[in-house]
Amino acid sequence: YTHHCPISISRRLHQTSCTCRLLITSLLKCILHSPFIQLAHARSPLSSLNLLSTLVSAPVMTLRMTNDHITFLQRVASELVASNKGILAADESVGTIDKRFQANAIENNEENRRQYRTALLSNPALATYVSGVILHEETVQQLDNSNSKLVDVLINNKVHPGCKVDKGLVPLTSGLPGEQVTSGLDGLPERCRAAKKAGCTFTKWRAALQVEGGDDDRGLVRPSAQCVDAMANTLARYAAISQTEGLVPIVEPEVLMDGDHSAEAAARANEVVLSALFAAMHVHGVVMEGALLKCSMVTPGKSRGGGGVEHTDLVASLTVRTLMRTVPPAMPGVVFLSGGQTDDDAARNLQAVRKCAVDARSPWKLTFSFGRALHNAALAAWASKYLSGDVAGAIEAAHGALSQRAAACAGS
Question: Judging by DSSP bridges, how do beta strands 220-222 and 212-213 pair with one another?
Fold first, then answer.
């Protein structure tokens, strides 16, 4: 409980008189100075006392939004986590999609990217399992083979179009070697307005954090406190801007699977990251009911061979425990990235997490926001036909493969 009590208590503190606030703060400081609490947080790079002091003293920003504006955000966020549906991540950068195209002998050019994304997004059965699609900026402006905007194709199919609005990862000079922070706050309001004008209803911003340590008395080495702080404030500022422009923000602080860390170390890293993120979002005035979290499932590092059926129960229990300790109940839902898991592992672990969450009486809808785990098979099916010049057959093959994977992830 102490992992998230400073966030929820601070909301109430800001609604009290100064005298009452000082009294409550003093009491909480006494509690947090107790030997039990200090022991519980001795291995965490973030101090609950410092977090509480920051939340109590920081001015809470209030976003200028009408009731109708907030109601719209809440409705879209709820629809994105509708039962038995999830989000398709089709926002690969040109560099990322190049690797996937090369693996299928496809040349990476704008026309081939347009053809492939047309094959994914024109699936008439997409709305059965998918509530929204995260698009790359390039795709937002592209047309299908009938000269219809791909965004309009989704809207007509009752699927929410969204847009990735960050500008990618850059080195974090104040952090440890190799740590990164996401760029793109400059010009973000303008990009959000352009996405809104194009028909998008939500946006996404990704951060990436490494895990090192956490398995012994040293505690976590990575992510560093500087990296966590940069991530939290950048994501919170993005979310506030996105909401101000009328778009639901999906905040994605991905804790990477790369490394040989244990599942417990990954859980500790996720708890530190998510606690800092929601504290910053609160300070920046983000309306939790109109936002979504996209996060990693808690898995061992890849070098430990964390895949397979034997790890499913551990992944589910640690993932749900992490969410229960950190995520505000006001948030309507949490969507999971596949994060390098195999297609089958991602689908199986998701179903186990959902079951565990029901048993724990969690307050959120839990679903998928998969990229590779959803359209790896679709890309292979599309490429085999497309290379032979059968464009119509390629589209049909992609539809079938995507529907099959989406049904497996939706639990149908």
Answer: antiparallel
**Of the candidate ranges 2-16, 138-152, 310-324, 356-370, the one whose mean pLDDT is the lowest:** 2-16
* Separation of alpha carbons 26 and 109, rounded Å: 61
Cβ atoms of 333 and 366 within 8 Å: the answer is yes
Taking residues 355-370, report their average pLDDT: 96
Instruction: Tell me, rounded to whole angstroms, the distance of Cα 409 from its chain centroid.
Output: 17
| Distance set, CA 296 to CA 67, 206, 314 (Å) | 32, 12, 14
Classify 44 in phi/psi space as left (phi over 0), alpha (psi -120 to 50) or beta: beta
**What is the 3-state secondary structure of the chain?**
CCCCHHHHHHHHHCCCCHHHHHHHHHHHHHHHCCHHHHHHCCCCCCCHHHHHHHHHHCCCCCCCCCHHHHHHHHHHHHHHCCCCCEEEEECCCHHHHHHHHHHCCCCCCHHHHHHHHHHHHCCCCHHHHEEEEEECHHHHCCECCCCCEHHHHHHHCCCEEEEECCCCEEECCCCCCCCEEECCCCCHHHHHHHHHHHCCCEEEEEEEECCEECCCCCCEEECCHHHHHHHHHHHHHHHHHHHHCCCEEEEEEEECCCCCCCHHHHHHHHHHHHHHHHHHHHHCCCCHHHCEEEECCCCCCHHHCCCCHHHHHHHHHHHHHHHHHHCCCCCCEEEECCCCCCHHHHHHHHHHHHHHHHHCCCCCEEEEEECHHHHHHHHHHHHHHHCCCCHHHHHHHHHHHHHHHHHHHHCC
pLDDT in tens, 284-325: 999 999 999 999 999 998 888 766 777 899 999 999 999 999
- Tens digit of each residue's pLDDT (9 = 90 or more) over 189-242: 999 999 999 999 999 999 999 998 877 656 778 999 999 999 999 999 999 999
> How many Å apart are CA 245 and CA 253, to the nearest integer?
22
Tell me which residue of 264, 253, 244 sits closest to 223, measured CA to CA. 253
The residue type of 357 is A
Measured torsion, CA atoms of residues 308, 313, 316, 320, in degrees rounded to the nearest 10: -160
Given a contact cutoff of 8 angstroms between Cβ atoms, the answer to whether 374 and 398 are in contact is: no
The catalytic residue positions are: 252, 294
Q: How far is residue 226's CA from residue 238's CA, in Å, rounded to a whole number?
A: 18
Amino acid identity for residue 286 in this structure: V
